[in-house]
């Protein structure tokens, strides 16, 4: 088989999810026996101090015989996270002005986003 034919065969169906400095690639590929499987690739961009950058990639191969169990577990884990923590993202990496306040011993930590970067505007001034 020519190299060009092989490349066309591998690019059966693809979707991309860009999420900050991470990008997820979902690809349907073909086995040598012309059956399909899915690859999920996480590509994460790292910037060096000199301004150069590199990517780290992690790939998962998911075969048809595992689709049902994978989907069930993914759905269960997703539902668990959303039920217990909601959809709001609370993370140092996602909030520019994230701060964590620690209470007295035995008290839970309280997480807030700092507001110093906001300007108090009186609508009468506009």
SSE layout and pairings?
Elements lengths: L2 H8 L2 E7 L2 E9 L5 E12 L5 E11 L3 H19 L12 E4 L8 E4 L13
Antiparallel strand pairs: 1-2, 2-3, 3-4, 5-6
What does this structure look like?
The chain is an alpha+beta fold. The chain has helices spanning 3-10, 67-85, and strands at residues 13-19, 22-30, 36-47, 53-63, 98-101, 110-113. Strand 5 and strand 6 (110-113) form a beta hairpin. The longest helix is centred in the middle third of the chain and has 19 residues, at 67-85.
Helix content: 10-25%
CA gyration radius, whole angstroms = 22 Å
Uncertain parts: 111-118
Give, in order, the helices and strands: HEEEEHEE
What structural class do you assign from the helix and strand content? alpha+beta
Strand count, sense and barrel status of the largest sheet are: 4 strands, antiparallel
**Silhouette:** flat
Please give the alpha-carbon distance between the first and last residues. 69 Å
How many strands in all? 6
Beta-strand percent range: 35-45%
Question: How would you name the oligomeric state of the polypeptide chains in this document?
Answer: single chain
Mean pLDDT: 77
> Strand sequence of the main sheet, in spatial order?
1-2-3-4
Annotation field: number of helices: 2
Brief rundown of the structure:
With 126 residues, this protein is an alpha+beta fold. It has helices at residues 3-10, 67-85, and strands at 13-19, 22-30, 36-47, 53-63, 98-101, 110-113.
List keywords for this structure.
126 residues, alpha+beta, 4-stranded antiparallel β-sheet, two-stranded antiparallel sheet, 2 helices, 6 strands, flat
